[in-house]
Amino acid sequence: MKQLLAACSALLFAAPALAQDEPFSDWLNDFRPRLEAQGASPQTVSAMLDGLEPNPLVIERDRTQPEFVRPLWEYLEIAASERRVSDGQSALRENHVTFQTVEASLGVPREIVAAIWGLESSYGAITGDLDVVQSLATLAWEGRRRNWAEAQLFAVAEMLDRGYAYRGELLGSWAGAMGQTQFIPETYLARAVDFDGDGHRDIWTNYGDALASTANLLARAGWAEGVPPAVEVVVPDDFDLSNWNPDQQRMTAEWALRGITRADGEDWSADLNMRAARLILPAGLHGPGFLTYSNFNAIKRYNNSTSYALGVWLLAERLAGRGEIHQDWPLDNPPISRSQTQDMQESLVALGYNPGVPDGIFGPNTRSALMAFQRQRGHLADGYAGRLMYDAVIAARNAAQAGE
């Protein structure tokens, strides 16, 4: 470990591109009086900042983006693996009184809470062992997310001054997430609860506090009792994609009139028929589709990722003894890599579309540009950036360049 840290330190300080040009001490000397001005006690300021040094591993993790994008189907198999389901069902049995109380008081199903617990820390087994203050200070000094990281440090100071946590227990991930369900400090202040009434909101070692805090976050995000986060659906091959986009909401009954059926073969309930839902096609029209409801958005308040929300939903379903994906995934058409995404973005720009700045990240602007390309070029406008569509975009760019 010492050799790894030495190597990372050498990389950090030899390569200005990996950190701010200013010395860490300059940022620290600037931040200390601002932390004091926010009202942090001298004892807390000293506990947080005295002797603090940056952690080069944090910058390495923050700046290193994976080249290859894991297909959703592989992610879901890991998220809802047999081992994770088995461990989760054991956790539900062993802690059934706590789960029952949390569900009764906050209205969030125990399987959903358990699923988040499982995905965030393997049911409390892996919570992170990095100093949260050091991680956040490193991110603030690095500068890419300075305002966000400094806001978290202000929240840490408030946690310490209010006695919510002790300096030594502030351990977590490289990104500053803490405890068994990985709260960032601002979220801890806003949503963590003292489940057992001992005067300490302990999300690190007290699973009751951690689970109740998770349920409270979802409840405050608008969790609606009795509404599924998602339902797998069958989308007919002749579905009209001309005015569809994944942010569009319609009543379930209207989706049904457009040919959308449940993949499990059941009829739509009267309640769901009157619920607004979004149709998402995360692997394109030739993969499973999903109608997502308001509770899907509540899960995304925890982690703003469609894959994560689907992972929580699927794991929760499997914990409840359900959770089968009925349709096949397009295994022959996996998602493209980051460098391929940037190639696609640059090609779309060259063809007159507007995917935003070519950065290798497939976001809403790139999806809109790709869908416009698909509509105008006679492809299914499902917005899925798979290998086949990548080939089509690159071929169109090459043809346009050859004709110049």
TrEMBL record:
This is Lytic murein transglycosylase. Keywords: Signal. Residues 24-317 form the Transglycosylase SLT domain. Residues 338-392 form the Peptidoglycan binding-like domain. Residues 1-19 form the signal peptide. CDD domains: Slt35-like. The keyword Signal applies. It comes from Hyphobacterium vulgare. The keyword RNA-binding does not apply. It comes from the Bacteria. SUPFAM superfamilies: Lysozyme-like, PGBD-like. It holds the Pfam family SLT_2.
